[in-house]
Design brief:
Distance between the termini: 42 Å
Helix content: 25-40%
Strand content: 15-25%
Radius of gyration: 22 Å
């Protein structure tokens, strides 16, 4: 399979955007971006980027997650806001031209993403209108969201600015599979951006050494309640606090009680859920628990983004649960245990699933609060 890159164009900085000026129309687009001076187009290597698991929305108002958009795709991302009338229209035209250059693989291998830097005002409707101005097609996604979620994404990419009217165009180019990242000038011509995407797409995968936690847990291919593939470690555990239990969808014994406790934990976590904390409910009957059944079960407990109900091939699920000490041959014999882990600090604790929700929450809070100071003693 062809290597698929992640290519992020993050455009923030020094060119002032005049909010009061009239917006250009589709019939009268701004001039194409001029070629920058050669000295400013040289790119530099960067460390791999970790995307936060934040809940955003697209121009249709549909909920999306940035990790799902960049996973195994060549992605070109810019950062704009719809009331900007100076540099942002130029960036929109550049994306329109890049969209044409990537037409053969747009939507399959390539995705264009524009993230607002004005989440307080850029609603899905305004994002949709801005995209239409530059003929944004199905492979071009415009993203907004709650201000805190958008800010977390911008900070993770080291492109956050508190003053949206002043932003310097920067290009971040990365290959999600190889971990290769570059920084270049944001006004690099679409033809050069296209060439850089090709270069990153052709790069061989990096021989990254897996962490001790990844070697222990493995990285099984699971599927969540939305039918989305999830790697157990790299997509769900890495750099997070995780709360894990087991269940099966047709269970009438302890599962509703245990899942009810998880619903209480969800309420307790508030907006931390899906940011640095995730909840994983893994089926012990993966052959019967299809994504549709997982979805129906999740809806019974009003599961929010960040609470994943997981199944998949038994050959993937069974080894994962065995490593956790949670596999049973008969689903009716599954254990009422809750595992709580902090991947950053290495602290893991168990809680009795049939304990009171308050007792389980106390364990969860202790793992969340861990800062790793006592890691050497553990």
């Amino acid at each position: 399979m062809n290597h698929l890159a992640v290519f992020l164009v993050a455009l923030l900085g020094a060119a002032a955007c005049n909010n009061s000026a009239a917006q250009p129309s589709a019939a009268d687009p701004p001039a194409a971006p001029a070629a920058p001076a050669p000295a400013s187009t040289d790119d530099e290597a960067l460390a791999p980027v970790t995307f936060p698991d934040v809940a955003l929305f697209d121009q249709r108002g549909a909920p999306v997650r940035i990790r799902d958009l960049v996973h195994d795709k060549i992605v070109v991302m810019n950062f704009v806001y719809t009331s900007c009338s100076s540099i942002c229209p130029t960036l929109g035209v550049a994306f329109e031209q890049l969209q044409a250059l990537e037409q053969a693989r747009l939507g399959r291998e390539v995705r264009l993403i524009s993230v607002t830097i004005d989440p307080e005002n850029d609603t899905p409707e305004r994002l949709r209108e801005w995209g239409a101005r530059y003929h944004a097609g199905p492979g071009w996604t415009l993203l907004g969201g709650a201000p805190r979620d958008v800010e977390q994404l911008l900070k993770a990419l080291s492109v956050y600015t508190a003053v949206k009217e002043s932003h310097v165009p920067i290009v971040l180019a990365g290959n999600d599979r190889t971990g290769t990242w570059r920084r270049a000038h944001g006004l690099t011509t679409p033809a050069k951006l296209h060439a850089l995407v090709d270069e990153l797409s052709a790069a061989p995968p990096a021989a990254a050494e897996p962490s001790a936690a990844q070697r222990y847990f493995g990285d099984a291919a699971l599927v969540d309640q939305d039918g989305t593939p999830r790697r157990f470690y790299s997509d769900l555990i890495r750099d997070r606090i995780v709360i894990i239990d087991t269940f099966f969808a047709h269970c009438t014994g302890i599962c509703p009680v245990l899942t009810g406790t998880f619903a209480r934990i969800q309420d307790h976590l508030g907006d931390r859920l899906g940011r640095d904390v995730v909840m994983l409910s893994i089926s012990v009957d993966p052959q019967r628990d299809t994504p549709d059944k997982l979805k129906e079960y999740a809806q019974r407990f009003q599961a929010r983004p960040g609470w994943y109900f997981l199944a998949g091939d038994r050959a993937e699920v069974e080894p994962t649960l065995r490593r956790l000490g949670l596999w049973v041959d008969d689903p009716n014999d599954h254990k009422a245990l809750v595992l709580v882990g902090n991947d950053r600090t290495g602290l893991w604790k168990k809680a009795l699933g049939m304990a009171t929700p308050e007792a389980v929450i106390q364990v969860v809070d202790s793992v969340i609060a861990d800062r790793g100071e006592d890691a050497a003693a553990r």
